[in-house]
Automatic annotation (TrEMBL):
TM region positions: 26-45, 57-74, 149-168, 188-212, 239-263, 275-294, 338-359, 380-400, 412-436
InterPro entries: Silicon_transpt (IPR004693)
Pfam families: Silic_transp
The keyword Transmembrane helix is assigned to this record: yes
Keyword entries, A-Z: Membrane, Transmembrane, Transmembrane helix
Protein name: Silicon transporter
Amino acid sequence: MTDTEIEKSPEGAHDVELTPLLLFKYLLSVCVLLFSIILVGALMFTGNTRVAKETNPWVALIVCIAAIIWLTMIEGQQASLVGLPPVDPELYKDSHPITYKNGAVAFKGDNLDRYLMGRQFMVLMVVFVINQCGQPLDPTVDVLGMPDWVKFIFLDIGLGMIVFTCVLGQLHTQVNATHCMIDFINNYFALFTLYTAMCVEFTGIMHSAYLIQNLMSVVSGKPIISNEEPKTGFTLAFFWARVLMSLCILGFCMAVVMVALVNGDTMVAVKYPDISVGLSIFLFFFFMSVVGTLEAMQIAYFCSAKLTWEERAQGIFGKKTNHILFDGNGRNFPGFMIGRQLTVVASFFLVASITGLNITPGEGNNIFGISDGAQQFLNFGLHGAVITTILASITWQYAASAFPNAFVNSPITYVLLILALCLEGTGICHGAWVIAKVMKKVCKLQYDEVYVGTPEERMASSKPDKEMTPAQDVGHLTGGGFAGFACGSHDPLDGPIRSKDAMEAP
């Protein structure tokens, strides 16, 4: 095969040049990951995690493995379902019938938004479960005879759990699903996950977020483009009843956290006893804001990519941000996504520690005098997942979809962008590409262009992708339509991404 043929082939189009530095980062990350896996296992089998202590180490291990496996599908499926809507489903209907079923459900009406909302809660809930299974109860306890400085980095700071969760449960599956969308969800596990996410949304636990969605639309003066008729009658009443129920649940969850923090009944008081109540409350809102800002940045940057330079770079920080993200054919955008994931997961674990309850049922100290069963249920972090999903994730994403330029031109987001790129530059998560390569071969995943061609080829064959506009992002969680993540695109997550400016250049 000639060099030209290699460049045109799907494999060659997605390959990156292996430099000595890149190989070193791969090796370093894999070593850190292996050490983190051993460390988490050691914590479980010494009874130094919550689930291991309250049940037994094998339960903690099995639950953790199951949670990681499900997290890989939840994260990967999102990349597939957000990327496939512009593509004509008839192109893969016969070759991938289950993918077609996934799309038939997800792309009907506003189901994609429902899935994404339910999926967001599932991510937080699963991450909180992983935290309960693998996070140390006491970081000072001896583990594997590690010196204090290693324990500080991997246990106190939590690098072990961050790498464990990011690399094993999130990044590698996102790498594959971004470019193997059609193969990735061609299974009943994906279909089950889709229905589960939609059932979670249907319960109404997250419906208070829809109130925020509508408020953002009103404040911005931008309408929410829906694929369904306006709700009327019973459907409308049922919708707002769930919004009210969700507000009550959210209020209860916030009350639980605040009372527990004041009374010293959270896990942060166990792990870090020197932290005062006031500081704990401050850190709770601080890390919630960090998560929210990073979630908003993702949406804002995707929206911004569909605008011209003049439309998106309206201030000094906006210009700096866009230069960093989109110069050189967008080479820094994937780096931001990786660094962002690291920071978000780290913040998730910190919020989980701050909101996690340290109340033993049956001792008469149950919060608000609830039953022992209810207390045991809360101890596994449901209230923290609800708060984080609504207030630290979905709310900020809706805000970014309505006001993308406000986030792009902010000095705070600029600082977080630099931080994310610095974290990615360390190579701590580069092992995700190694795992992705292995899993791609094991699962026999093929790049999307093998089945449906590239966007350019689909256009040439009179099967062009549906156009996605910035107006369609308002009030939605997709951030979709960015050309760099188009199905079959040769602009991979591990390579350059084309901005609108690059596409419009002669």
